[in-house]
């Protein structure tokens, strides 16, 4: 079981980092859209 967890850990950490990056991209794009909308008004 411990060997399985050790082999699983890099994959889990990659998925965690990928999801964090994805969320960061979504948030920054929303902020950029809001700035663009404010600039047009």
Concise account of the structure shown:
Keywords: Membrane, Transmembrane, Transmembrane helix. This protein is an all-alpha fold and 41 residues long.
Percent helix, as a range, is over 70%
* Total helical segments: 1
Mind telling me the C-alpha Rg? Answer: 18 Å
- Mean pLDDT reading: 85
Overall 3D shape: rod-shaped
List keywords for this structure.
95% helix, membrane, transmembrane
Overview of the molecule:
By secondary structure, the protein is an all-alpha fold. The protein has one helix at 2-40. 0% of the residues are buried. Keywords: Membrane, Transmembrane, Transmembrane helix. The chain crosses the membrane at residues 15-33.
SSE topology sketch:
Blueprint: H1 2-40
